[in-house]
Amino acid sequence: MSSLTQYIELYKGNQEAINLHSAEVINRRRADAVVALEGKRLPRKGDEGFEKTSIDTMMSPDFGVNINRVNIPVDIASSFKCDVPNMSTLMAVVVNDSFVPTTTLLNNLPKGIIVDSLAAAANKYPDLVGRYYGTLAPIENPGVALNTMLMQDGVFIHIAKGVKMEKAIQLVNIFNAPSPLLGMRRVLIVAEEDSQLQLLICDHTQNNGHRYHSSQVIEIFAGMNSKIDIYDIEESSASTSRYSQLYARQEAGANLLINGTTLYNGETRNDYSIDVVGDGCETTLAGMAIGSGNQLIDNSSNIKHFSSHCHSNQLFKYVLDDNAVGAFEGAILVADGAKYNEAFQTNRNLLASRDARMHTKPQLEIYNDDVKCSHGATTGQLDNDALFYMRSRGIPEKEARMMLMQAFMVDVIDTVRLDGLNDRLRHLVEKRFYGQQVHCSDCGAACHEPKL
Question: Could you tell me how far CA 288 lies from the centroid of its own chain?
Fold first, then answer.
């Protein structure tokens, strides 16, 4: 039996309660989601594009769903001291799958900017939310359909035309519940023409005693000449799994940067799908993953160029130890008539143990000659010559290995454009490699002692 069955039955048996705690703009798409799920199943290991990851297995446990929006206490105040990062941001918290704004956020949002609960925004601005919600993420995708069917709340961010945010927005996602829980998270971002946004998303787990799963769908609309930075840092727990699907659309002249970091997790699948539909766009998609123990980290990307004179760059790096498994499948599409584009993709991987495994599959699909495109992937071990040189200079082997692994991640960190985050990421990566707790003493989230 497909794991979808239990959630479809859950929805049909609780439809009234699910609708009651949401908004009409959101509710009216649920019927289409149910139809889209008929006869479908979630991807399984070995399916095309899912060689190492089974979403169906991730969803198989009998996770609870907070249909009646019961208030689950969480240590929100301590999360504001989060070590990721130590800089000035406007914060909001998503407790499991419920949006909780901070006083700082509410009191300091500039005119022309909305950062609100998606359900609340859908009631306040139904025409605005309805114009975008669910129009980019394809309902035919079972993961999107499941999220659309059960999701009751999320985050809505709207930046009006010409508005440029001086401070970054930070969303702190926290899992904490007295039993296994499924969090249906949704983020809708609309950046109008000539606007600017920097968003930092941090995932934490405060209670390691239960299993959690995050089903997340993000839709990003980048208007003409807008500039959007999205930074996603996952530092959860071995008992937390996540399936995140991000869909973005860039209009002419839009500049989009997405940087995803997995420091600690159980099982993770991140899908990135970016449609470049306007001329003169700039697209940067970068990611780094550090895996040990039995972690699974799977990233899939697809940047589609439908316009001309655009530039895109994909850069993903993995360091895997113990029995960790990594996967990367990246695609570039240049459509017929999309001239004078430059599109590049790079995947580099280090295996620090004999039992770590990496799957990589770069792909190019080009229907135009007037382009510059390339892809490349390598998987190997640390440079023995470099290790020998460092040891000959008196550096202990363990220290030399850590220094080389840190240096390996530098160019991914260098893509960051948010002031202060570069240094914080270097600090977090260093602590992760040295097996230290990443943020426990600062924000009360999950404590781990991973080692590489």
Answer: 12
With a threshold of 0.85, does the pTM exceed it? yes
Q: How far apart are CA 72 and CA 177, in angstroms?
A: 7
Q: Note the pLDDT tens digit of each residue in 103-121.
A: 889 899 999 999 999 999 9
The torsion defined by the Cα of 85, 86, 89 and 94, in degrees rounded to 10, comes to 50
Report the C-alpha gap between 289 and 283 in whole angstroms.
20
- Give backbone dihedrals phi and psi of 121, rounded to 5 degrees, phi first: -65, -35
Tell me the domain boundaries of the chain. 4-443
Contact at 8 Å (CB) between 348 and 380? no
287, two tokens: 């990611």
DSSP string covering 174-188? EE--SS-EEEEEEEE
Cα gap 182→95, rounded to integer Å: 12
* Structural contact between residues 438 and 428, judged by C-beta atoms closer than 8 angstroms: yes
Q: How far is residue 248's CA from residue 238's CA, in Å, rounded to a whole number?
A: 29
Q: What is the pLDDT of residues 16-47, one digit of tens each?
A: 999 999 999 999 999 999 999 999 999 999 99
